[in-house]
Specification:
With about 170 residues, the chain is of the alpha+beta class. It has helices at about 1-10, 10-25, 30-35, 40-50, 70-80, 90-95, 160-170; strands at about 25, 55-60, 65-70, 115-120, 125-130, 135-140, 150. Helix content is about 40%, strand content about 20%. A hairpin with a 5-residue loop joins strand 6 (about 135-140) and strand 7 (about 150). InterPro entries: WH-like_DNA-bd_sf (IPR036388), WH_DNA-bd_sf (IPR036390).
């Protein structure tokens, strides 16, 4: 069980979401989206997962869904990810490349894409998307078995993966 929780909160954005919920006490996903400038679906999807793992408690106030960290969740997080409780972790809000996590916030003048392909140490492939200035936008991993994973979208099926599949199908023709 701890392994599942540890893998679920492994990314910096997910740790920031939990840190934000911890600081605010009780919050709703729209508030997280506005303050962290991330896509709308990421906080609600992640917090639903945390609710299933009994880290976060879900309650309703009218039509809004409120989330707060449970006592059991606090003890698990203190053991697995103590940096969430550090006040200096809030400084990470400013240093993260916020505009790179949702294309609707990404500056249009930097959209020229470059894709670099590399092979990792287990034989899978990593595809890196770069903008026109050479900054990393996203990484997509493909295992030997054909399983895909996008790091910025945290999903197995997204626009980055669909773009790569279509791109390489056209190259094969």
């Amino acid at each position: 069980m701890e392994n599942i929780i540890n893998q679920s909160i492994a990314t910096p954005i997910r740790k920031l979401i939990l840190h934000f919920v911890l600081i605010r006490g009780t919050t709703y996903p729209k508030q997280i989206t506005e303050n962290l400038k991330i896509s709308k679906g990421l906080p609600s999807q992640f917090l639903r997962l945390c609710t299933a793992l009994n880290i976060v408690k879900r309650s309703r106030s009218g039509h809004k869904v409120l989330y707060s960290i449970t006592v059991k969740g606090m003890s698990i997080l203190k053991r697995l990810s103590p940096e969430i409780f550090d006040r200096s972790f809030s400084g990470l809000f400013g240093s993260l490349p916020k505009k790179k996590y949702g294309t609707k916030y990404y500056p249009v003048n930097r959209i020229g894409l470059e894709i670099k392909e590399s092979v990792d140490y287990v034989g899978g492939k990593q595809y890196s998307f770069y903008d026109s200035e050479g900054d990393l936008i996203s990484n997509v991993y493909r295992s030997n078995e054909g399983a895909w994973w996008c790091t910025s979208c945290q999903s197995r099926a997204c626009r980055h993966i669909n773009y790569l599949k279509n791109y390489y199908e056209e190259l094969k023709k």
